[in-house]
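go over whats below:
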Amino acid sequence: MAQIIQPISPAAMDELAALRLELADTSTVEIAEELPRIDLEDQALRFRLLPKDRALAVFEELDTVHQQELLDGLKTEYVRDLLDSMEADDRAKLFDEMPAKVATRFQSQLSPSERRLTAQLLGYEPESAGRIMTPDYISLRASMTAAAAIERIRHVRERPRHLDVLPVTDGHRKLIGTVTLADLVTSGPDTPVGDLMTDEHFQVATDTDQEAAARLIQEANLNALAVVDHEDRLVGMITVDDAMEILEAEDTEDAVRAGGSEPLERPYLSAGVFMLARKRAVWLLVLAVSASLTVTVLSYYESYLANVTVLAVFVSLLTGTGGNSGSQASVTIIRAMAVGEVRFSDALKITWRESRVGFLLGAMLAIVGGPVVGFVYGPQIGLIIALTLLVICTWSTFVGSLLPLVAKKVGIDPALVSAPMVSTLCDATGLLIYFSLAALVLGPTLTG
């Protein structure tokens, strides 16, 4: 039996027209932010009402998780056209996050040229520069005139979306410089490209870590960075917008780990309760096991606390101070490492500097806290607290500055030894310092 298609009522037509006008008055970024907040059926409806170019721009603004959800609500033909129109690097990123079977099915539906470009990018190692570069670029020759270069750009059948910076290559596809589109347009038509290009250029290999490539773009104030293969032949460009996304993801990962959790790898509202708990549970377990060191130290010095009970009053104060000062140092060094300001070869200089910082902090706290405690609990207790604050702050800042450097050296993400881990370690060692100084000052009173 033939399916009867119900005609759209005039009221529904008016609603669609009003919705289309509303979308036209809303920016691309705002649509991309609001789209994931509505149900999938309404997402697909609104998305199909967008003009093709606008729909593509909105789609590329979405996180990969929301892109996959939206694709599930669209018709196959629409999906095929949408994926074929995407930038190759954005498409590769999307496929990389999909289940393998789904990605293979979508990839097989692409046009031969786009399928080849996508396969090329997916062939590089994850988190490498080759994985995030765009293989669509227009290269120029130094011998070209500005007019000839502009004419070449104008007649390229599929122009890249980013043309701010154009690579200049020799006859063997080796990069010899770059030229900006602005310089080409504003110069005389007969000016050679070689006179306009920047001789000092930057490039990275396809296997360079993507964060290192993104940091280079940021530090050198580049709009695009050339990517070359192992024979120094130009194979693609990394654009500044992709670099900023990489840096945002890396900074988010470091911030989350500094708070004692694992990155969600998806937007917060798209993560279920079980996933949120799972990402935090591992760290809680590790920190709980680490905290058992503190319990062990307290058990060992139980007789000290029994003889001089006032010492128990300051345990949390001292361990908290040590943990906080160590955390401050570790976060400072992790951030400095992330932006390329320090490296392992600077370890001696860093630890010496941070130890002095810790000594000054401890001295300030000791000057303030020692007399107050001495006035209330006696001069000996005041001296113990003052000395402990001085030593514990010096030690904790030393540990907090050294651990991230050592972790990086042995191939561990420095964020894994971030604030919570440093704080827990400093708690246990801080107690050892505290009771050792107490035994030194009180002597027989404490051990008798």
User: Anything to note?
Assistant: The domain at 268-447 is CATH 1.10.357.20 (Tetracycline Repressor; domain 2). Residues 1-9 have pLDDT under 50 and may be disordered.
